[in-house]
Each structure stands twice: as C-alpha cells, then as structure tokens.
Amino acid sequence: MSFNNFTDADAAWRAAWDHNEPCVAIIKHANPCGVAIGENIADAYAKAHACDSISAFGGVVAANREISVEMATALSEIFTEVVIAPSYESGAIEILSKKPSIRILKASEYVRPELELRPVLGGLLIQSTDAIDASGDSFSNWKQVSGGEISDAIRADLEFAWRAIRSVKSNAILLAKDGASVGIGMGQVNRVDSAGLAVARAGDRVKNSVAASDAFFPFADGLQILIDAGVTAVVQPGGSVRDEAVIAAATKAGIAMFFTGVRHFSHA
User: Which residues form a coiled coil (predicted)?
Assistant: First the structure.
C-alpha cells in the first residue's frame, strides 16, 4: 500500500459510509469518480462505475456492505488499486485475487472521528469533522426558493446528491439521477468551470438530473449552465449577496431550487 493508496482508501471508505443505503464510492486522486446507492451492493457498484468509467480505471473502491460474488465479478474486469469492505461473500476474495496487484482490505464499520487535523506551516489546524448532521442537512429544513412541487423521486435524488457532494473537493458540482452520480465537477477554482465539467462528464444523462452545489452560486452563470443542460432541480447552501439574481434565473427556467443554509466546502 502506498501513501496515496491509504489516503484514497480513507476517502472512499468515508464516502461510502456517508449513506445508509448500500453504497459504493470510487475514488481517484482524493476525488470521487462515482458514488451510488442501490438495491444491493452489486447494483450500487454498477451505477457508481457508470458515472465515469474512464476515471474509475486504477481507482479505489469502497463498499459499505458485504461485497457479493456478483459485485466481485464485475469489479474483477476493471483494473483497481484497492477495494475495501466490511466483509466478503464466500468466493468473492478468490475472484478479486485473480487481479494482479489489487489490495483487498477488510475494515470494521466506519467510525467518524470527532476532529480533523491538518499540519500547516508553523502549526496545526483542528476542526470538527463534517458529519452531514447539521439541521440544514435535513430536507425538512430546506427552503424552496423557486419552482413547484417536486416528486418523491426528485426529492430522493436531491437528498442523495447533497450527501454525496460532501466527498467532492470544492468547487464542487454533482449531478445525480436514480440514486447515482452521473457527472461530477470537482476541484475547480470557479463554480462555472465545475458546472461545465459536471455537465460534460454526464453527457446525455444530464437531462432530467438534479444538481448539488457544495457552496452558493456567487453569480447566476454557473446555475445557468446547469439549466441549459437540462437539470430539473438544484440544492445549494444559498447565502450569496446575489441570491436574488440566482433565484430569478431558476424561477425563469421553472426549476425547483432549495437552500440548505449549510455548506460542505472540502479543501482537504
């Protein structure tokens, strides 16, 4: 295991446990190239891998449920650096072990540390770990600022996207559909580029998807990229001095937009 293997495995393990449902997260260079929940762990893996199958090559895969033979068989067809899960169905390890250089890890259920530590020049920064447990992380506390009533399916996708974006480096935009990320724009120095990257990676899947933004839109231009691509609903923290202009763009387009009042602004 290399230094990068350990850091990516840690990021993937945490991302998979951000969700209560069967979930798979695929991490590459500290960013997710796919996160999905499913009826079972094999379904979740298929959906996560489909998000960005090119970037998943050589990635780190984490599952928050026992890895089944079905998932192991699909995973064995892709070059993977590390796989981590709480357990493995009988026969799954044998299937995965046929791949050269794969590291197969077993870990107990994720326990989120209370604090995060980061060394900086001349000292050490300490902060509370983002546990996605603020009042604004609950849909019941979101404020709808545009659009009409949404379906249960759109609500579920918005809730998934909001939890999934926690693991994406800022500036972050995550597009989701049917409990899976379909396009992720991460680590850009402006939100316009992140929106464009998410749309580009989603391709045709952007139509009727939902979007989450880890922080507010400082201008309406980033949101407009999502609107023009076919996104139907957006969740974001709100709080920009130009919120009214952003709300006006969403209202004009007829899309539902929700403010959470909290943000997940990952710079780690």
Answer: none
Tell me, yes or no, if the two domains 3-106 and 141-259 fold the same way: yes
What CA–CA distance (Å, rounded) separates 260 from 143? 7
Q: Which DSSP symbol is given to 241? A: T
Domain ranges of the chain: 3-106, 141-259
141-259 belongs to CATH 3.40.140.20 = yes
Backbone angles phi, psi at 67, to 5 degrees: -80, 120
74 three-class SS: helix
Residue that is written with structure tokens 């250089």 in the block: 101
| 43-100 per-position pLDDT tens digit | 999 999 999 999 999 999 999 999 999 999 999 999 999 999 999 999 999 999 998 8
3-state secondary structure 168-218: CECCCEEEEECCEEEEEECCCCCHHHHHHHHHHHHHHHHCCCEEEECCCCC
Amino acid at 102: I
- Does pTM surpass 0.85? yes
Q: Which two tokens stand for residue 109?
A: 């259920």
CATH class of the 3-106 domain in this structure: alpha beta
- Count CA within 13 A, CB hemisphere, residue 158: 25
